[in-house]
Design goal:
Helix content: 25-40%
Number of strands: 6
Largest sheet: 6 strands, mixed
Radius of gyration: 27 Å
CATH class of the largest domain: Alpha Beta
Strand order of the largest sheet: 2-1-3-6-4-5
Structural class: alpha/beta
Strand content: 15-25%
Number of domains: 2
CATH superfamily of the largest domain: Ribosomal protein L4/L1
CATH topology of the largest domain: Ribosomal Protein L4, Chain: A
CATH architecture of the largest domain: 3-Layer(aba) Sandwich
Order of helices and strands: EEHHHEHEHEHEH
């Protein structure tokens, strides 16, 4: 097991914690991570767009003019695609974009993404995360102390309303309860911050 230092909210080292190699030390599998991200994004698509084909547009039952002798191009319906208010060619229709991924593969993709963060030094553990008044300035001070100058994901062991409120106005910071953690959030952010309790619970469940 590899040990990683534990910081306080001021950015000072206050201890260390051991990371289980079966969770935070697995092989980097880019293809598996890619599959997990694509599945996540596909499942968020609603697929509700729909336009009318020429057979669905109201009207157009009669031929606009006779086939020959008018000097104009032949036309069969005023609802053909080339007409104003006509139907749409290859019209998009409502469909299900959802994809499925094996539960074990999904878990391994998450482990792989987290292990990559640990290996790259982009995984941070804090002893606790508390903001007394839920003010944005408290979270800004925390972000500066830990050097989270780019996008950061903060993973907590529970839904701390004050922390969520304090981080809500910081565009580069995303807060997430441990139960909702997925591969997409890990790879979408530059650094990942776990509370010590969140790490312990995550390892307890998955080790």
């Amino acid at each position: 097991m590899a040990a990683i230092k534990v910081l306080n909210m001021a950015g000072s080292e206050v201890g260390s914690i051991e990371l289980n190699d079966s969770v935070f030390g697995v092989e980097y599998r880019e293809s598996l991570i890619h599959q997990a991200v694509v599945t996540r994004l596909a499942n968020e698509r609603q697929g509700t767009k729909s336009t009318l084909t020429r057979s669905e547009v109201r009207g157009g039952g009669i031929k606009p003019w006779r086939q020959k002798g008018t000097g104009r191009a032949r036309q069969g319906s005023i609802r053909a695609p080339q007409w104003i208010k006509g139907g749409v060619v290859f019209a998009p229709k409502s469909r299900d974009f959802s994809k499925k991924m094996n539960a074990t593969a999904k878990k391994q993709a998450l482990f792989s993404a987290l292990s990559k963060k640990v290996a790259d030094g982009e995984f941070i553990v804090v002893d606790e995360l508390k903001v007394a008044e839920g003010k944005t300035k408290e979270m800004v001070a925390f972000v500066k102390a830990l050097g989270l100058d780019k996008t950061a994901l903060i993973v907590m062991d529970n839904d701390d309303v004050l922390v969520i409120r304090a981080a809500a106005n910081i565009q580069s910071v995303q807060t997430l309860p441990l139960a909702q953690l997925s591969t997409y959030e890990v790879v979408a952010n530059n650094k990942v911050v776990f509370t010590k309790t969140a790490v312990e619970k995550f390892q307890e469940v998955n080790a």
